[in-house]
Amino acid sequence: MDVVTNEDPYLWLEDVTGDDALAWVREHNQPTVDELTTSDRFAELEAAALEILDTDERIPYVRRRGDFLYNFWRDAAHPKGLWRRTTLDSYRTDTPEWDVLIDVDALAEAEGENWVWAGATMNRPAYDRALISLSRGGADAAVVREYDVPTRSWVDGGFALPEAKSQVGWIDRDTVYVGTDFAQTPDGLPAITSSGYPRTVRRWSRGTDVADAPTVFAGEVSDVAVGAVCTHTPGHVRHFVSRSTDFYNALDYELRPGADDTDDELIRIDVPTDAHYDVRLDWLTVLTRSPWTVDGTEYPAGTLLVFDYPAYLTGDRTHTVLFTPDAHTSLQDHAYTKSHLVLVTLHDVATRIEVLTLGTWEPVELDGLPELATLGVLDADPDDSDEIWLSASSFTQAPSLLQGTTTGGVAVIKATPAAYDSSDVSTQQFFATSDDGTQIPYFVIKRDDVASGPALQYGYGGFENAMTPSYLGIAGRNWIARGGVYVMTNIRGGGEYGPEWHTQAQKAGRHLVYEDFAAVARDLVARGLTTTPQLAAQGGSNGGLLMGVMATSYPELFGALVCSVPLLDMRRYHLLLAGASWMAEYGDPDDPAEWEFISQYSPYQRLRAGLPMPAFLMTTSTRDDRVHPGHARKFVARMEELGYPVRYYENIEGGHGGAADNRQAAFKSALSYEFLWRTIGSVDPN
């Protein structure tokens, strides 16, 4: 079908905080709020979501740093959150004694800023200083300040950066690597890339002006970003720098600092530019994303190999294969402890954990793993012990936290109580046949007494992100327990079956994502699990683009769509905020050959009159500085121009997640579920 138009009368809505644009936002927010938030059901949905998000009984997830376990916590009394710590012995009790280091609510009130916690990076091995990142309203851009942990105070004259999309990491207690939006660069080029991330890295010493810090590495303006990291493994301290030439490719180097800044040695780590690599002690692991021939043997995408790192740098390619994918199994993650390498694999989207002994690479058993759960490595100690922390959950099993060692096994140390009674809720996996014959897995979660009913189909389909089974707390109480059917899709573009499940759907293959999602929608109806008027779909960010395509290319398959923080104008996405960084995923719309295939699905350009448009709810955030809110605004404006009814809600805060605190998240969630119950939930299937 031909693209309708490239004309854009709504460019003015891209002015994020412009008076006219914000007036438009408020005018569109109010009718949606008035319509969807006044019922008793909305109040119940919002209260349930907030209770789940705020409950003190949920797991306080931690990271070990030295002798302490650190946690960031939000609840009803502390909506902006507390950064705090405790000991392992105390953590094991039902009521740990928490030592509060930073109260973000108190800090925000004292400074008159809408601070949102954006993370803490601590120095090793002392862990007495932290680089704290604070965001205004939830944006990706953040300010950075140095914090002294023993004295509970900000370091006067310490490392500090103004608001920017910075990268900063410790070299030692008095030196950091920093990439930020510098006022000037020695080469006269911009300090940030066209994607809005740091282009240069400097070595910054305490007590000096960051503007005077020497540049140790620089990339091109067309790169996505550059970065640097110092590893702190005793006896194996190394420095690495990297140029991300696009979202999936990078040029990687070891940086060996010289006696002064002019003597630094840069050594290329000659692995495939699209591979993931890691250096641990004297081992180099390489996880391929495309076929790679080593010593005459071609290995498929998704293979994990290990080399002797010093020998590799001299050209020796002697290696051992640690993992080989097959048609059903892929490697999702790997992590080191002091003695072992832990592999997390997926077999038809079901998790398995394997443990290998470092050096011999012989498998060992890890005792204490639960059955039929999605498992993930949350933290591990690669330097000092074999301690490991794992998460476990399923669609119907509330999260639990396991702790132990790879030598002695693991056990549940914390568990979150169930958000709803799932004793009569079951999960089934089905496979739909896509247009090209590929089998697409998806999960259906519903009450056993519900044979067919209103169904909510969720999808993402991009950036190699696998959609694995995880606990549906809010969806469980506000959708499934009320009789709704929940559907999680594992469409191409994700990483459920390894890199090729993703790479075949990049650029010109993007149509496969949408064909897969549509195939699942048809399969749900064909199996009698729902009807077309009772079927809704939901997605955000790249999943919001998916919703836009469903609205403009497959509207006849759905009764309602919920589209959040989306990409929709694919003609201009690369010009807006971080959009340029995603051209390796979608293509370059300024290249006529690539615009040819992008134009076949770009929702903003393909929106036209006469579509059987489903009921539509659009949500976004003014403070999203990753995906521009102009995508959502312009799409809604054009929908209204064409006479389509649409509900719109834009959170003035919230960043790319759409919410800056639990209350905002609960409100946004309740808004979506109320919309769904009023639309597909009120359809008479007969």
Automatic annotation (TrEMBL):
Pfam families attached to this UniProt entry: Peptidase_S9 (PF00326), Peptidase_S9_N (PF02897)
Any single GO BP term: proteolysis
Any single Gene Ontology cellular-component annotation: cytosol
Molecular function in Gene Ontology: oligopeptidase activity; serine-type endopeptidase activity
Keywords: Hydrolase, Protease, Serine protease
Coiled-coil residue windows: none
Domain Peptidase S9 prolyl oligopeptidase catalytic: 481-681
UniProt-listed SUPFAM superfamilies: alpha/beta-Hydrolases, Peptidase/esterase 'gauge' domain
Superkingdom classification of source: Bacteria
Keyword Hydrolase: yes
Protein name, per record: Prolyl oligopeptidase
Organism of provenance: Gordonia phthalatica
Organism lineage: Bacteria, Bacillati, Actinomycetota, Actinomycetes, Mycobacteriales
